[in-house]
Amino acid sequence: MIDDRYRESYRIFEKAKTLIPGGVTRARIPFVPGLYPVYMQRASGSRVWDVDGNEYIDWMSGYGCILLGHAYPEVDAAAIKQIKKGFISLLSHPLQHALAERLVELVPCAEMVRFLKTGTDATSAAVRIARIYTARDRIIRFGYHGWADWAIGNSQGLGAGIPQCTGDLTHAFEYNNLDSLQELFTAYPGQIACVIMMPFEIEMPQPGFLEGVKQLCIENGTVLVFDEIRSGFRLAAGGAQEYFGVEPDLCALSKAMANGYAIAAVVGNREIMSATEQGLFSATFFVSSLEMAAALAVLKIIQRDGVIERLWHLGEKLQEGLRQVVSQSPLNVEVVGAPPMPFLRFAIEEEAVNARAKDAFYAEAVRLGVFFHPGHHWFVNFSHTEQDVERTVQVCQKALAVAEQAAQVYG
Question: Is 174 in the same domain as 283?
């Protein structure tokens, strides 16, 4: 069944499936089939509009790449200025030096910088750097690091199309469980090139956990890589490593750095970063100065306009409002995540009931004009307002009532 509100989305979707595998570029869309839009038409500030003309308060912010707000004028002006000058050639542009200097100033672990285009580029480059530096092959990981072969092999098995030999070199450990990490070091002594991990995803680190990971890496001669593709420039200007006070050897950055313009970077220890001179790290678009101009504007605004403080304030207000809502519900629903990256997690014991209630909640929320992702934490951006938060809490209260009905009907 397709909701009439999304009729044009699904008309395009059916046609697109004849040209694009799955009909869309990104995986797992639509989130609730027939009850979620599939295509967005435009975006501005904290709002997006789908191809059917429906308007939404957008809490996904382009999966986190929109830090300041969609189509943020000052950032777009910097990008347009660079476009008019020409922004790509055989040679690098001096803006790379200016941007590298800013990252070294902001990110605690940064002594040297290498620029790339996407998050997967950055995490893959970090792994390659660690392998070159240590002359080891195995890696240990926690979290999502992109779609490269090495990043998909984990304790849950190989993804489709991933060679067994690649998956055999990738090992996953349990977050907030140092024993699970120690077990892997014990099983593969002297073989681990790096531990690459998101400093947090939804659960926050327990006291001493990140420090313990770093100590195990030191003891085993292993490079510690923080994947800050999501958390970079959100918890603090210097990312989660600044907020938690734990410096990795290397850090992967992207998403929010340029407010949606495609750029990424690996930053880190000078000695380890120098190992990149021995390997191949090259692509035509790595030298593009368009995104560098946008990133410089973003980093300036972060420090000038109190961006981080606003993300925390709005995120805390949203989470507090959601806690009040869920406290009145009989459903097991939890408000989790860091305030700038919050989430509402359905944790009903019966799996089928949980799925039905969750789908009902998110379908009703989007119908009422609030855009969430049912299976991914959300992102506050600088253009969100107090009114956006208040409206979102009101919508969540109504959507949770619908979810309660769905759970009861299923039971």
Answer: yes
Q: 194: how many CB neighbours lie within 10 A of its CB?
A: 27
Q: pLDDT, tens digit, for every residue of 245-295?
A: 999 999 999 999 999 999 999 999 999 999 777 888 888 889 999 999 999
Of 269, 288, 304, the residue that ends a domain is 304
161 shares its domain with 35: no
- Return the structure tokens found at 374: 């049912």
Q: What does pLDDT average to over the chain?
A: 94
Query: Which tens digits make up the pLDDT trace of 282-307?
Result: 888 899 999 999 999 999 999 999 99
C-alpha closest to that of 321 among 389, 381, 385, 230 = 389
Q: Which residue has the tokens 């070091």?
A: 185
For every residue of 319-367, DSSP letters joined together read HHHHHHHHHT-SS-EEEEEETTEEEEEE--SSHHHHHHHHHHHHHHHHH
Determine the structural domain holding residue 227 and report its residue range: 73-304
- Which residues, in sequence order, are bridge partners of residue 342? 337
Residue matched to tokens 């998403």 = 255
Residues 52 and 134 in one domain: no
3-class DSSP state of 199: coil
pLDDT class of 77 with cuts at 50, 70, 90: very high
pLDDT value, residue 30: 64
- Roughly how many angstroms between the first and final C-alpha of the chain, as a whole number? 22
| Cα distances (angstroms) measured from residue 404 to each of 317, 318, 391 | 24, 21, 20
Choose among 248, 140, 150: nearest CA to 187.
Answer: 140
Same domain flag for 250 and 375? no
**β partners of residue 47:** 44, 57
pLDDT digit string, tens, across residues 311-369? 999 999 999 999 999 999 999 999 999 999 999 999 999 999 999 999 999 999 999 99
296 and 310 together in one domain? no
- Calculate helix-pair angle for 178-187, 209-219, nearest 10 degrees: 10
* CATH number, domain containing residue 400: 3.90.1150.10
Indicate the residue among 278, 304, 330 that finishes a domain. Answer: 304
Structure token digits, residue 210: 């990140």
Whether residue 321 sits in one domain with residue 217: no
How many domains does the chain fold into? 2
Q: What single DSSP character describes residue 197?
A: E
The residue behind tokens 């938060």 is 389
Same domain, 141 and 279: yes
